[in-house]
Amino acid sequence: MTASSESSATKAEPLRGLVLLPTYNERENLAAIVAAIHAARPELDILVIDDASPDGTGALADAIATADARVLVLHRQGKEGLGRAYLDGFARALASPKGYTHLIQMDADFSHDPAHLDAMLEAARDGADVVVGSRYVAGGRTVGWSRRRRLLSRAGGTYARAVLGVGVRDLTAGFVCYRRGVLEALDLAGVEASGYGFQIEMKYRSVRAGFTVVEVPIAFPDRQHGTSKMSLGIMVEALGLVWRLRWRDRGATRGTRARGARA
Q: Which domains, ranges and CATH numbers included, belong to the chain?
């Protein structure tokens, strides 16, 4: 079955979603974001993926999970990067007997408003394989950002799109819904990026595999509490990643053609 025909077949299937919520020192936000997600979409389960937060986020997550069967907790031994957290979450979700059909990435700091879940899940029901909560399509916007931050973000996205040759306007977006079949088809063990470049790599791999990526507009405010995890090192990693992805795939294409010619 092709990616397009498989996505068409999923339209009539019931949607069972799991929100993946990576945390590191998010104690101030956790209870509120869990409550907001369930107020918006009560049927969704939530997997808190905590990287041994020294502020007690993990213990709070356990307490919330004890009181609410829709909340699950995955404790990791330390801070290994956003990408590794999501990959561990994907593995846990795909192995779950609950049979989740869609996995949703979200930040725990309210930069991703749970009110946008309706539009994202509607796009998923309409057959999108990957739904991106996008700041940079018509109707999308950032709120409370400095002019410098907006320029850097847009320039980085434009740069990545140009190098990789894909049309997704918000490649660095972290509010993303994946159909289960996408994650099962991709080589998750081969994902290279561990930081924010993970968001670029996953979207690029999805496009290259022939899956349908749909962007829906969101408002993206600055975080309400806590400290941003973004750093110069993370930005440098993402800029270098796009070239490695391009040249890796270019080399693979050449190798395939060469083997075909010899055959």
A: 3-262 (3.90.550.10)
